[in-house]
Each structure stands twice: as C-alpha cells, then as structure tokens.
Amino acid sequence: MNTQNPKKQLALWSKRHSKGLKVSTIVAGLYLVSLFIPVVSSYTRYPLYVVKCGGLPITGSHLASATGSYLLPGGRFSDNIFTLWLVDAYFCSETEAQAAGYVKDSYSN
User: Fold this and answer.
1) Bridge partners, residue 69, by sequence
2) Residues 57 and 49: beta-carbon distance below 8 Å
3) Phi and psi for 87 in degrees, rounded to 5?
4) Per-residue tens of pLDDT for the chain, all 109 residues
C-alpha cells in the first residue's frame, strides 16, 4: 500500500506526465490553428466531415466553374487525396450541396 500523502502523489504524477501533456496541448493547438489556414484547412476539415457524415463526404469546389461543382464519393477524382487542397466545402448530402449553390460535376457517378 502506498503511504505517501496525496499532494506528493499528485506532484510526482504531474512531474512524470508533464511532457506528454505539453506535447498533446501543442499538437491540439496546431490542429485548431490549421483549421483556419486556407492551404491546409481542407485537409484538416476532411476527417471532421467523415465523422459528421458517417462516411466519405461530398466535396465541393469552385475551381472548374464559377457556380461551383461537387463530386460524389467514389467518383473518378473524389478519392484522390491530392485533390483535397482544391476543396472549398464538404457536404453530407446532394441536397445540402445543391442548396449551397453547387451543381453535380460531370465526373461524379
């Protein structure tokens, strides 16, 4: 049985785990900041939408047209991780994408 007083136990625990806590805090902070950096924000938002949608999200982009187009998951270009930096928005349904003013891309299923 450990007979140290609780204050000493807490001090010992925090001394042992402080480096891991600092690293975790820095990583979480960098992730939150990256959500707002245009070049990488589409990469960092992607996993959030996979969870939100319960599967791969529909990706929307204004690159090929002025009105914006969307690609369904499983399409010719939608699964290419290198095209994620072109994504402006993610949607969970086609209805949601159309309500935002996007039209179905000809490369979609």
Assistant:
1) 61, 103
2) yes
3) -75, 130
4) 556 677 787 777 777 777 777 888 888 888 888 777 766 777 788 888 899 999 989 888 887 667 788 888 876 665 565 566 678 889 999 999 999 999 887 766 5
Distances (CA, A) of 32 to 28, 29, 45, 98: 6, 5, 10, 29
Q: What does the DSSP assignment read for 78-105? A: TT-GGGGGG--EEESSHHHHHHTT-EE-
Q: Residue 75 carries which DSSP code?
A: S
Strand residue runs (E) in 1-109: 58-61, 69-71, 89-91, 103-104
Structure tokens at 11: 């001090």
Q: How far apart, in whole angstroms, are the C-alpha atoms of residue 60 and residue 52?
A: 16
DSSP state, residue 56: P
pTM of the model: 0.63
Report the first-to-last Cα separation within the chain, whole angstroms.
65
